[in-house]
Amino acid sequence: MYQPPHFKSKDSAIAADLIRAHPLASLISPDDEGLPFVSHLPLHLKQDGPHFTLLGHCAKANPHWRYLRQRPKAVVTFLGPQAYLSPSIYADLARVPSWNYLAVHCTVRAMLIESADAKDALLKQLIGDHEPAYAQQWRGMEPGLAQQLLAGIVGFELEVLELQCKLKLNQHRPESHAALRTMYAAGNADERELAKWMDRLGLGLTKGG
Fold this sequence. Notes:
The chain is an alpha+beta fold. Helix content is 33%, strand content 36%. The model has no long low-confidence stretch (mean pLDDT 94).
């Protein structure tokens, strides 16, 4: 991904927070014709210090797992909050509209998870992420049905080989920060989240604002 230095983050804690808050990923692999094949899937992040591993699954009918088996190297992207940036935040008129967003890109190596027990353990981690109360219902499911459902998916573990984190929040235009934060704080859900990220990064109040 294009990474101007002022938008580049090397903080793995920020990347982890974005992945956990926005777990619906785009998994991108070359298909048999060499074209990008994309699946949109929720992924679970396992973190061991600076080392990240992503866990997920797809339907067995989805050919993506076959592409991962044949060509294990892939790309995963996560898109965090994003919003329009109006030129009205500037004092002068020589400005153009833009867009702010937070994103994480991972280069990964895939390993398939195909045993029923391993897929069950994977699903329990995803359930823990999104609806812990459902775990009891899953555990109480009739065994034959549970096995049938597990047979319908293929799990995978994605070892993160390279991590890129981009925080595009107009860092290079400090004169805009106060007005931009005020605008975002009064906006929609994504804009309010970006305002909180501006606060986290110390961009809300500047001498230029």
